[in-house]
Every structure is written in structure tokens, then in C-alpha cells.
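Duplicate of #3305? Posting structure anyway:
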């Protein structure tokens, strides 16, 4: 069987990014067959026993990727101490792999999410340094003024500091409600709602329409769609080194 770089194996398991995995190896937190591992070490999955922080990591599972439409009311975590429905409930019961949501979406928000067990892809799509763009459509009460929209485009101050969208435009403007399309390359808690509140409007509905290269249209109106690694590569500008191999 072929050997792989140790840090790559750790990253593929979704335990840490490759860089973080290297740090763990350097810090002596990783062992192979009971001996402290070293940078550059190669391992054979299924044969070598690898432990990170004293915990064994086993053979990678089958990698799976699901685009799902998260309805309002579901929490985007794998478990919830309050017993609320998690996004994992949206998967068919025959999926036995341990998937997790790639990125968050508030319980009161809806729209596109990706569920996968590909740690490498998850790191890429969620790490702020990659600046993956997310697009939302926020329905707000009232008619949004041009001045307010310009304010949003320039950026607003929220508790963490000054934040500006990659883009913001008005899709609809009626006397009683408007729809603002807003793209962000960061993801602070309730960021869209808080930014819109700063320009004086209340979000009454928030839908995520794009997550990096993935668009709501890929679901074609269905609640969920399994996509293959090949489709991910075709949809996105990612190359195979961004995914677990
Ligand atoms: N911004 C929000 O306010 N909520 C989300 O779920 C995502 C972005």
C-alpha cells in the first residue's frame, strides 16, 4: 500500500489543517506506532497506528459531499444541547459516515450549506485566510434608501470593528419590504443581520444563496443533492490538492 505524508493524513481526517498538523508534529503531539513522529515522516493508512494528542486516528471514511437547503429552525452543528434539530437530520438515514457542516448558518437563517467529511475542503472553505465569498439575500422591512445602501457598501461598525461587504445591491425595493443582496468574505456571528441593523433596517428573512463556488442553483429546487469530488472540481476553481485524495 502507498504511503502518505503524515501531516496530509492528519489534515484529511479533518483534525487540523496541514500547517497546524505540522505544528502538532513539531510539538511532539503526534505519534506513529507508539513513537513520537517527526516532520517528513510517511505513513501507511490502515497499517500504521497514528495518534494525535494521545487519540488514535483511524482509516479515513468514504468522502461524501452534500449540498443541502437548510430550512429555518435547524441548527448548523452536529449536536445540540437544547435538543434542537441539527442539519444532520436533513441527510438521508442511509448515510453512515460522520459528516459535519462546513461553516455555519444561524438557526433563523435558511439556504445553502455544504455537509461533508472532507476536512481538507472544510478548512479551505471556512478558514478566513482563504476569504471564500458567501452571498446572502436579506429581506428587510421597508424601502431601503440609496443613502442607506451606500452606507452599507462603504462599511459599518459592529462590535468587533469596521466591516464592509464585498458587494451589496438592492434586488427589490417595495414600500413595505426590500431585498438586499450582500456578499461577505468573512463570517462573524450574525454578521449580515448586524450590518443591516446598523443602516437602520430589520432583517425579516435571510437566505444564503452562495458559498464560495457552490450556488443555490446547483440544488435545482431540491432540498439536497449529493455531489461527487469530480463535480466539486468542475464547479469550483479548486484543484485536487484542495480536497482529500
Ligand atoms: N449572517 C447572519 O446574520 N446570519 C447568518 O446565518 C449568516 C450570516
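Output from current build:
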Amino acid at each position: 500500500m502507498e504511503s502518505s505524508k503524515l501531516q496530509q493524513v492528519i489534515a484529511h481526517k479533518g483534525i487540523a489543517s496541514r500547517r497546524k498538523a505540522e505544528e502538532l508534529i513539531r510539538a511532539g503531539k503526534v505519534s506513529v506506532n507508539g513513537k513520537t513522529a517527526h516532520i517528513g515522516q510517511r505513513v501507511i493508512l490502515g497499517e500504521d497506528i497514528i495518534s494525535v494528542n494521545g487519540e488514535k486516528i483511524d482509516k479515513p471514511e468514504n468522502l461524501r459531499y452534500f449540498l443541502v437547503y437548510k430550512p429555518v429552525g435547524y441548527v448548523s452543528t452536529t449536536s445540540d444541547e437544547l435538543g434542537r434539530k441539527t442539519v444532520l437530520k436533513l441527510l438521508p438515514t442511509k448515510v453512515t459516515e460522520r459528516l459535519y457542516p462546513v461553516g455555519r448558518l444561524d438557526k433563523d437563517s435558511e439556504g445553502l450549506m455544504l455537509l461533508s467529511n472532507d476536512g481538507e475542503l472544510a478548512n479551505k472553505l471556512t478558514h478566513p485566510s482563504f476569504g471564500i465569498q458567501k452571498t446572502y439575500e436579506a429581506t428587510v422591512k421597508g424601502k431601503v434608501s440609496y443613502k442607506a445602501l451606500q452606507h452599507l457598501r462603504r462599511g459599518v461598525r459592529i462590535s468587533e470593528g469596521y466591516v464592509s461587504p464585498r458587494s451589496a445591491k438592492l434586488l427589490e425595493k417595495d414600500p413595505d419590504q426590500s431585498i438586499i443582496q450582500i456578499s461577505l468574505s468573512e463570517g462573524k456571528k450574525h454578521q449580515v443581520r448586524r450590518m443591516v441593523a446598523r443602516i437602520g433596517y430589520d432583517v425579516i428573512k435571510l437566505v444564503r444563496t452562495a458559498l464560495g463556488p457552490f450556488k443555490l442553483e446547483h440544488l435545482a429546487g431540491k432540498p439536497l443533492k449529493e455531489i461527487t469530488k469530480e463535480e466539486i472540481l468542475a464547479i469550483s476553481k479548486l484543484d485536487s490538492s484542495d480536497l482529500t485524495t
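Confirmed duplicate; merging threads. The first strand starts at residue 4 and ends at 5. Helices lie at 6-12, 18-26, 119-126, 146-154, 191-198, 229-235.
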